[in-house]
Amino acid sequence: MVAVGTMVWLSSELMFFAALFAFYFTLRGHLPDLWKDHAATLNVPYATLNTIILVVSSVWCQLGVLQAERGVVARPAGTSLLKVSTWGMREWYVLTYVFGAVFIAGQVFEYATLVTEGITLSSDSYGSIFYLATGFHGMHVTGGLIAFLLILGRTFTTRRYSHAQATGAVVTSYYWHFVDVVWIALFLMIYVLK
Questions:
Q1: For the packed helices 32-39 and 125-157, what is the interaxial angle rounded to 10 degrees?
Q2: 35-78 pLDDT tens trace
Q3: Fewest C-beta in 10 Å: which of 16, 43, 59, 180?
Q4: At what angle do helices 125-157 and 163-187 cross, to 10 degrees?
């Protein structure tokens, strides 16, 4: 039931982002010159690297899910952290968290750069929809990072890692994969379809 509920909730989130996409394309259709001017200021290679970081985090997340489903919470005591083949869900989720945090830091850096170039939330329609779309996505990534902290915290508070705890890890991965897919769509919309 938790998995089904999560999927229903993510469907409602999809509708929210669909509205942002519609808003973006409507504004872009009515103000093509504004888009042409501002799209040139975007650092596409930087955004591509940041996108790769987020997408790779989904791989780490899925490896963590596989370990959670097997009941492998953490690597056995006494094994080297460098021996990746012994990692459990905890290690993979920590790595996912780090990559997600790097993505958010990259977004903040990009925002700071764009503000110095005069693109702000209130500068014009382009700035408004750029920051709304990417900012709401960033808030969702931050929510996912908080969920990872809760799942990781749970691994330290339970004596036996049960199916219920594994379900929490799995639905967190659903959310994380969702925000990754949304970002790929945003990346294509904003950075590729200039």
A1: 60
A2: 888 888 999 999 999 999 999 999 999 999 999 999 899 888 88
A3: 16
A4: 160
Q: What is the distance between the alpha carbons of residues 54 and 99, in angstroms, rounded to a whole number?
A: 6
pLDDT in tens, 104-139: 999 999 999 999 999 999 999 999 999 999 999 999
Whole-number Å distance between alpha carbons of 99 and 79: 23
Contact indicator for 115, 121 with CB cutoff of 8 Å: no
Task: Tokens for 194, please give them.
Answer: 């200039």
Other CB atoms within 10 Å distance of the CB of residue 14: 13
Closest among 119, 112, 132 to 26, alpha carbons compared: 132
SS3 call for 157: helix
User: Shortest CA distance to 152 belongs to which of 95, 94, 96, 101?
Assistant: 94
Cβ atoms of 90 and 152 closer than 8 Å: yes
Closest CA to 183 of 172, 191, 193: 191
User: pLDDT digit string (tens) for 167-186?
Assistant: 889 999 999 999 999 999 99
Q: Which two tokens stand for residue 69?
A: 């489903």
Q: How much helix, strand and coil, in percent to the nearest 5, is found in the chain?
A: 80, 0, 20
Asked if 74 and 91 count as a contact pair (C-beta separation under 8 A), the reply is yes
Residue with tokens 């990746």, as numbered in its chain: 84
